Amino acid sequence: MARVEITKAAIKAEAARLKAFFEAQGALPVEMDILLPAEVLLDLYGEDIRARAYMTQDPERGEMMLRPDFTVPVVQEHMSNGAEPARYTYAGEVFRKQEDMPTRANEYFQVGYEVFDGSDPAAADAEVFAHFANVLSDSGLHAATGDIGILKAAVAGLKTTERRRAALLRHIWRPRRFRALMTRFSEAGTTLRLQNLERVRANLAQPEAPFIGLRTQTEIDMRIEALEEDASEPPISAGEIELLDDILSLKETLPHVLSQLRDITVDLPAISEAVSLLSRRTEALAKRGVDVDNLDFEASYGRTSMEYYDGFVFGFYAEGRPDLPPVATGGRYDALTAVLGQGRSIPAVGGVIRPNVLLSLKGGA
User: Fold this and answer.
1) Opening angle at CA 300, ends 266 and 237, nearest 5
2) Does one domain contain both 185 and 58?
3) Is the domain of 195 the same as that of 337?
4) What is the CATH number of the domain that holds 3?
5) What is the pTM of this model?
6) pLDDT tens by residue, 29-71
7) Minimum mean pLDDT among 35-39, 172-176, 215-219: which range?
8) pLDDT at 6 (0 to 100)
């Protein structure tokens, strides 16, 4: 399909319309700086973000970054000066490199809606999703939902070492690495773990081996100790691996997934609280008029592009247009507020809309 050229004026007008909708829902409009200190974002996402963001150096403020999204600065502002409950909306440009997808814009508008309210997380999730569904209702989009919290609860409940659980939790947003770790910690990975340990020992035993790299001798010793400890631990049971696979494979309408998760809870009670939250969210969505019987749910949804979301996640897409990014994405990010809150946190959920993508589906300006 030919690419639709849309004027910047038209995008700004559409962004203003969307922002006005969220203001009408009680959101306070906010403005965020375009140039942000890089330190916080690098601490959150690691050095990987350099490949996606535009960096620059300021002689007074140090390393800076063109705004890659709004969520982090909005959370910082709220945790410093906001009162709860609070609802915010914003509209403005974000900047991201698109080396893997050069046809996608590297400078584009986002319109967002963020809710900081700990009184009823299920209701807040439903509120955000329902507002997005309403404002996008005439665009013929497909909605998808998921819940990172269920997978996190399943990993946290595994009968294995804290070190292994921490490694799996750290890589939930990297599916291939997560799968490799599941295999490594399973019965099938026992031989691999022992071989890896023996390989490291053999390398260090070489009398002429040069000492290169950035790790100190202490760090190397600690790594060997960790490998020895892991090699001596029993594998994660085949039953628990199967339950994780069952959760990861869930992809159905919301009521069907909820029923299957309740069955899994019998064998994996660690997810019972997360499944209960999903049930309450489903009821809250229905109360807001969302057709939950036909709402898709995918347990793995959001694991490749939503690193700071740790609970409910959602997206709105144009079916049959794989060339386009999602029109809207969002979810819950309680853990992010704890990281940026300087000792305090608050449940938070929100999302963003790309007005340029929305306009392209409507035929442009």
Assistant:
1) 45
2) no
3) no
4) 3.30.930.10
5) 0.86
6) 999 999 988 888 877 776 677 777 888 888 888 889 899 889 8
7) 215-219
8) 83
Task: Residue 153: give the domain boundaries.
Answer: 142-159+238-317
Q: Select from 237, 271, 296 the last residue of a domain.
A: 237
5 and 94 inside one domain: yes
Q: Do 45 and 93 belong to one domain? A: yes
Whether residue 18 is found in the same domain as residue 88: yes
Least confident residue range of 24-33, 97-106, 256-265, 322-331: 97-106
Q: Over 50: is that where the pLDDT of 1 sits? A: no
A 10 A CB-CB count for 222 gives 12
Measured distance CA(146)–CA(250) in Å, rounded: 10
Chosen domain end from 202, 237, 272: 237
pLDDT of residue 365: 45
Label each residue of the chain as H, E or C. CCCCCCCHHHHHHHHHHHHHHHHHCCCEECCCCCEEEHHHHHHHHCHHHHHCCCEEEECCCEEEEECCCCHHHHHHHHHHHCCCCEEEEEEEEEECCCCCCCCCCCEEEEEEEEEECCCCHHHHHHHHHHHHHHHCHHHCCEEEEEEHHHHHHHHHCCCCCHHHHHHHHHCCCCHHHHHHHHHHHEHHHHHHHHHHHHHHHHHHHCCCCCCCCCCCHHHHHHHHHHHHHHHHCCCECHHHHHHHHHHHCCEEEHHHHHHHHHHHHHHCHHHHHHHHHHHHHHHHHHHCCCCHHHCEEECCCCCCCCCCCCCEEEEEECCCCCCCCCCEEEEECHHHHHHHCCCCCCCEEEEEECHHHHHHHCCCC
Together in a domain, 120 and 155: no
Same domain for 67 and 46: yes
Q: In terms of domains, do 258 and 307 share one?
A: yes
* % of residues, the chain, pLDDT over 70: 83
Q: Which amino acid is at 269?
A: P
**294-335 pLDDT, tens per residue?**
999 999 888 876 577 899 999 999 988 888 889 999 999 998
Number of independent structural domains in the chain: 3
